[in-house]
Automatic annotation (TrEMBL):
GO terms for cellular component: plasma membrane. Belongs to the peptide transporter carbon starvation (CstA) (TC 2.A.114) family. It is found in: Cell membrane. It is a multi-pass membrane protein. This is CstA N-terminal domain-containing protein. The keyword NADP does not apply. The keyword Chloroplast does not apply. Residues 4-144, 151-278, 297-426 form the CstA N-terminal domain. Keywords: Cell membrane, Membrane, Transmembrane, Transmembrane helix. It holds the Pfam family CstA. InterPro entries: CstA, CstA_N.
Amino acid sequence: MIWFFLCVGLLVAGYFVYGKFIERIFGPKPELKTPAITMADGVDYVPMSDKKVYLVQLLNIAGVGPIFGPILGALYGPVAMLWIVFGCIFAGAVHDYFSGMLSVRAKGASVPTVVGEHLGTAAKHFMNLFAVVLLMLVGVVFVLSPAGLLANLTSTDLVYWIVAIFAYYILATIVPIDKIIGRFYPIFGALLVFMSVGLIIGLIVSGKGFYNTGMDFSNLHPTELPLWPLLFITIACGAVSGFHATQSPLMARCMQNEKSGRFIFYGAMIGEGIIALIWCTLGLSFYDSTEALNATLASGGPSAVVHEVSTSLLGTVGGILAILGVVILPITSGDTAFRSARLIVADFLNLTQKPMAKRLLIAIPMFILGFIISKAEFGVIWRYFGWANQTTAVMMLWAAAAYLAKEGKLHWVCTLPAMFMTAVVFTYLANAPIGFGLEMGVSTLIGLASTLVVTVAFLMKFRPALIGKASES
């Protein structure tokens, strides 16, 4: 458990040290009025307190990703915790901060508009399509996972819960953001804290430690799946996740002061990193071996692990509350995923969203399509979601790097994680069954070569701006 607390300490230190460094590079301007003030419409642009915005942001981004991903990542051993810590501090939280703050500066614009502003029209059109596809996949994943848990918990037919959750999503997507999301999500945040803290205390009391690994940072996966690049796709939420770039604009439309950005965007990602550490630690500690963890996963997936760990450590009542927390997490991200998709489509069509009829005009076809997608195999949907998620992160990181380059600021804080994640997604696409199925060595060469090409193109495109700013200084 010492290793767990050390990792948590590093995340907290990352917020105060590296987060402050990132904030200084961006340069928030508290004197500027935010879109929540200048564009208030009572629907999507609604001023809310920093505390409330932080809790909503945390719940928006913390779906099942920082639970299911770290549980699956625990199969690789303690090395998974290293990725959560360093990925979160130097990539994920940086990604979230810039996706939020650049949206604030762009009047609360969605991620395709932000990317297009800094990478060009072609990138904007690509992201318009890609972001909506990602959000639809996220919404469907975050219907199926809580529906499965609720079906197991209540012995009720799965289809009933799918329909019920979709019905709630329709409501939450079209009503003003402060009526449901702003009002109830802070309460759900308290449940999230209870669940996370309660489980780690239960683990400490149980006296369980890491399963016979010590501090072995080699690949311990029982089926010998390669660590590169799969770990960096498997653990997305909790380390770096492109889905967050679609969620940050929601809170960029509610934040009242630019100085709050580090707390809301960088800080919420650190909070999600701690949740991911808790579940990775539970996966590493509750079972006697990676084989035992894998056996439970094979019998019922990550949901079975959540149920088994929660009821064993917290008893029946505490376990049910913890499971409900895991149910609420994806639901509170699924509804905002569909809400973000509605806003992206509305921005693309230049369709005002104040009238209810125009919100329904976008929402109803979107939910019909989502229900159709939900009929596909969950494992297939999850794999496509994982790749699409990290590809979105790549685009957002390059857009942030472009902004910093044009401003003559230290763009490497975004360029380096953008390069790493570019190598990850190209290697994965070349190697994975959903991609080209090539041998890993060849796939890695393709990933590295692609990263080199993209990086050189980026540096050449923004070279005049970099030289100009350097000469001015």
